[in-house]
Amino acid sequence: MTGSDRELLSEKPLRIGISTRALFDLEEEHRVLSEQGVQAYASLQRDRESTVIKKGTGFDVVDRLLKLNEPDYPPYVEVILLSRNSPDLSLRAFHSIDYYGLAVKTGSFTSGRSLAPFIPAWEIDLFLSNEADDVKAAIAAGTAAARLGPPPRAREGRHEDEVRIAFDGDAVVFSPESDEIFKEQGLPGFLKHEVENATKPMDVGPFGNFMKKLSILRNIYLRDDGVSRVRIAIVTARNAPAHARVINTLRAWGTPADEAHFVGRREKSTILAAFGAHIFFDDQEKHVVGASQLVPSGHVPGPHDPDLPIIPAG
């Protein structure tokens, strides 16, 4: 850890924006909204105002990140609640936040309007939501964002003092440049391109800057034995020889991953469960759907057809 890292995040914390439906399990209430309308939904929420909401897909990672903050020291992590609920319905959310002891004090409630304008206004580094339009708008504005899937069937309380975050590589942490090579030239052209450019760092993708800032937080909690309370993994369909460019890019960025899993054609879900991911981000819906059965997962919107393979293993 360096003093400059602490000062950097104290002056400009890692800011997570999260919707109420991403933080809490409000699927029943959302069904009422979809099927019966706003008035029925508002009535149900007011009737349940004193009822604590169950934890949602994004709860665990938010809770763990906030617990990294040190008492009597400016926070390294801030979480802002961004909700399409009306201000009148904000009481239940903050009642549940207080019940769980989350250090979330600020937020915006827009009465059904888009949250997109408030993401840059709050200087959000990562936005988590179940609303596809808000997620796409956030990414278009240059903010890392993901649409969360349902909560996993079972929640495991492993690694209580850590936060473990896993990322896909291409079109998530890294730019979609190599994806485009694959689409235009096929697998042989892709492999040739990656071998020839193995030492050339890739450009940042939609989550590149978020990972760089997360790495500063990782460094603050890095012990002398090289282990941090913030653990980062890359889980990618790349395998050798295309793996080398991933490692060289991370070196060039100064953002080492604690783990890298080059899974080829293998499903990612079991690898993510073994890693103990508290959240996983991928740009292919099929990987998110599979992983969300075992770990909290979020889809990063991209230019791909969700049914087409992206950079399959050679």
Using brief descriptors, characterize the structure shown.
314 residues; 10-stranded mixed beta sheet; Rossmann fold; alpha/beta; 13 helices
Task: Give a verbal description of the structure.
The structure is a single chain. The protein folds into two domains: 146 residues, HAD superfamily/HAD-like (Rossmann fold); 137 residues, 3-Layer(aba) Sandwich (Rossmann fold), CATH 3.40.50. Helices cover 39% and strands 15% of the residues. It contains 13 helices and ten strands. The protein has a ten-stranded mixed beta sheet with strand order 3-2-1-4-5-10-9-6-7-8. Helix 1 packs across helix 10. The mean pLDDT is 91.
Short description:
The chain has 314 residues and is of the alpha/beta class.
Question: What's the arrangement of secondary structure elements?
Answer:
Layout lengths: L2 H9 L2 E5 L1 H4 L3 H10 L1 H10 L11 H8 L10 E7 L6 H11 L5 E4 L8 H4 L4 E4 L2 H9 L3 E5 L14 E5 L9 H20 L11 H13 L9 E7 L6 H11 L5 E4 L6 H7 L3 E4 L2 H7 L5 E3 L15
Parallel strand pairs: 1-2, 1-4, 2-3, 4-5, 6-7, 6-9, 7-8, 9-10
Antiparallel strand pairs: 5-10
Helix pairs in contact: 1-10, 3-4
